[in-house]
Amino acid sequence: MSQHPTRDELPLSGVRVIDFTQVMMGPVATQMLADYGADVIKIEKPGSGDLSRTSFPNDPAGLVGPVYCSLNRNKRSIVLDTRSAEGRAAVLKLVVGADVVVNNFRAGVMERLGFGYEDLAKINPRLIYAVGTGFGLTGPYSHKGGQDVLAQAMTGVMHRRSDADLPLSIYPTTFADYSAGMHLVQGVLLALLQRAKTGKGQRIAVSLYDSMLAAQTQEAAAQMMRGREVNWGAMPLSGVFPTTDGAVVMVGAFKQHPLRDISTALGIDDLSKDARFADHPAQVQNKRALHAIFRERFAANTTAHWIAQLEAQDLLCAPVRTLAEALADPQTAVNGMVMEADGEVERVRVVGSPIHMDGAPVSIRIPPARLGQHTDEVLAGLGLARVKAAE
């Protein structure tokens, strides 16, 4: 295989995806499908399109918003009024030749449009119908709008902190959306594999709620089977400690005598010989006193100094960086995690795929599209003219 395979050589070439998704959970999934060769046709609302197009309302006119760019490369954008007869007819014609339909609306929205699974399976029994919701297709919360922060709150993620004295807060990265998007991709790929054996399509469903519970699988099992709290962030030999020019995170684990080695790295007497810290239960009970000693030592020198000292003792540690620093790190470049391409208006710079396949390296074949950029092209392929209200 060539170093830069053509689209026909990519793993998902020949798979057509009709993408009704917007914002993050759904677009995370459909972008990964597109990266690996699927023909993803993104259906957007007339006039506004995906909500993430305007996440930065003060952007100059004509620019495609960076949040939209981050999740919509390698897709074709078409504009259809799905409530009009012509728009509905175009959707149904697309579905006939599709392999996958993906949406992340509230439960019931697609059914009201006439695009529910039962509706579409009648015209395409091989269809894989992927649904991402906030809380599930049925049940007491199925009516609620799904949103990352709500899922954090309702699944215990927000309540769990490394220190009980810390205030409750919102995790600032969209952890639930991204996790659920990855689960949605997995569901689509599993369904494609099963269809190859059975010839039949099916509906698959993922929710933010379930993904956040699944992310806590170890903690949940300990809670249900032993009634005990597992909190890896609260371990007494781990923590984040300010230095003279930043901060260091240290994980004192996976060693036979971690506290002895930490003491050596910090240049202090062996704290493991102190009765207050002699074993794990004692360290847990006296964590405040132990961390006070750590903080005092770390505050006396630079981040680079302490990283060198800790690594000399084979202790797990890292500098605490900003996102900008991480993006500029040589490891990020070596891993190919920053992708660039010329868009029609400006240069697009986005994070690449975390999955690295020798035979299918990801590239930006289609830069994030203008709203409706591919409407004429897609409809012509169906033998249709541009439908009304597709602007």
**Which CATH architecture of the largest domain would you pick?**
3-Layer(aba) Sandwich
Largest sheet: 6 strands, parallel
Strand order of the largest sheet: 3-2-1-4-5-6
User: What class would the helix/strand composition place it in?
Assistant: alpha/beta
Can you put this structure into words, describing what you see?
With 391 residues, the protein is α/β, with parallel strands linked by helices. It has two domains: 7-217 and 329-381, Crotonobetainyl-coa:carnitine coa-transferase, domain 1 (Rossmann fold), CATH 3.40.50; 247-319, no CATH class. The chain has helices spanning 25-35, 66-69, 85-96, 109-113, 117-123, 148-154, 175-198, 208-215, 217-226, 258-266, 280-285, 287-298, 303-312, 323-327, 330-334, 375-381, and strands spanning 16-19, 39-44, 75-79, 100-103, 128-133, 202-207, 238-242, 247-251, 316-319, 338-342, 347-351. The strands form three sheets. A six-stranded parallel beta sheet has the order 3-2-1-4-5-6, with helices on both faces. Strand 10 and strand 11 (347-351) form a beta hairpin. It is elongated. It starts with 15 loop residues before the first strand and ends in a 10-residue tail after the last helix.
List the defining traits of the structure above:
2 domains, elongated, 391 residues, Rossmann fold, alpha/beta, 6-stranded parallel sheet
Quick recap of the structure?
The chain has 391 residues and is an alpha/beta fold.
